[in-house]
């Protein structure tokens, strides 16, 4: 039994609540279509880009004061054309970390000349915010502005959430 706020809860109740919370979260994030799907059935399949295009996927991970950004670019034959990982010691918000991963991904695209490109990220709010850019002088707004600048300089127009 666990004791929370002067209430005793059975382990089974805590686990049941946790699974329900996670399913609700994933449903809200668009990862599953209904709460009837079990957690084991959730999967996202990578789709290759059209012939002549590259696809770069980005992601960020936060562990305390350590932030890690990664990206992987593949061609239509699904071969890795470029990849990069960066680790920094900082306290970024999850959204700023995801935006930084996307910016790093675009720098990899430009340096490796992976054009034309489709960039994918699982950070829905970040993708929507970049696609609907408005001037902002917050920490994340400045990252968004840098991303939009790179996209316009290199005519990158395809930016997706998966």
TrEMBL record:
This is RNase H type-1 domain-containing protein. One of its GO terms (molecular function) is RNA-DNA hybrid ribonuclease activity. InterPro entries: RNase_H-like_EbsB-rel, RNaseH-like_sf, RNaseH_domain, RNaseH_sf. The lineage of its organism: Eukaryota, Viridiplantae, Streptophyta, Embryophyta, Tracheophyta. Residues 57-156 form the RNase H type-1 domain.
């Amino acid at each position: 039994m666990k004791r929370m706020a002067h209430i005793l809860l059975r382990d089974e109740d805590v686990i049941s609540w946790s699974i329900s919370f996670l399913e609700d979260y994933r449903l809200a994030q668009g990862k599953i279509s209904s709460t009837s799907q079990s957690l084991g059935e959730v999967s996202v399949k990578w789709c290759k880009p059209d012939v002549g295009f590259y696809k770069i996927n980005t992601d960020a991970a936060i562990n305390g004061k350590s932030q890690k950004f990664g990206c992987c670019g593949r061609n239509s034959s699904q071969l890795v054309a470029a990849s990069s990982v960066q680790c920094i010691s900082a306290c970024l918000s999850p959204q700023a970390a995801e935006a930084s991963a996307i910016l790093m991904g675009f720098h990899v695209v430009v340096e490796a000349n992976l054009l034309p490109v489709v960039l994918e990220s699982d950070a829905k709010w970040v993708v929507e915010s970049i696609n609907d850019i408005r001037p902002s002088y917050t920490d994340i707004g400045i990252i968004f502005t840098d991303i939009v600048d790179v996209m316009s300089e290199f005519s990158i127009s395809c930016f997706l959430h998966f």
